[in-house]
Specification:
77% of the residues lie in helices and 0% in strands. The protein has 142 residues and is mostly helical. It has one domain. α1 runs antiparallel to α2, α2 runs parallel beside α5 and α3 packs antiparallel against α5. It is globular.
Length: 142
């Protein structure tokens, strides 16, 4: 029986890949909690113009911490593996966000608009951060 393996995953051993997926799941939960806190607390208290960038920074900080945990938990990864982990996390994130958008009834144009560099969500920068954070952590921890 053939199984689906994400692109680049063949360069990672199975335990590193499984840990990367578990860390991504923790990221998804963290992002959901972050969004709930943003909507319930930050926007009413600070306004949307401050709350959205602050929420993006909080989420990226959490991603950095989780990438640091993954690097320690996996006893280090090489440079190529760090890029593959970033690509895996971005792929899973984009699939998750697209599914969430579709469930909320968003059109493709509405979903794509969140990736505009000047969009108030700063989502493009969060996704780019998810991509490069494993590499940054790898460089800092070597």
């Amino acid at each position: 029986m053939q199984t689906w393996i994400p692109a680049g995953a063949e360069t990672m051993n199975k335990p590193v890949l499984i840990k990367a997926m578990l860390i991504w799941f923790a990221m998804a939960v963290t992002a959901i909690v972050n969004g709930l806190v943003r909507e319930a607390v930050l926007i009413p208290e600070l306004g949307e113009g401050v709350a959205r960038p602050l929420s993006a920074l909080i989420l990226l900080s959490a991603v950095l911490v989780l990438a640091w945990v993954h690097h320690s938990w996996s006893r280090g990864v090489d440079f190529r593996q760090a890029w593959m982990i970033g690509l895996l996390w971005v792929t899973l994130t984009l699939l998750f966000e697209t599914g969430l958008g579709l469930m909320q009834g968003m059109t493709a144009a509405e979903m794509l608009a969140t990736y505009h560099p000047l969009a108030p969500t700063l989502w493009l920068y969060v996704v780019l951060g998810i991509l490069v954070v494993p590499v940054i952590v790898r460089c800092l921890r070597r």
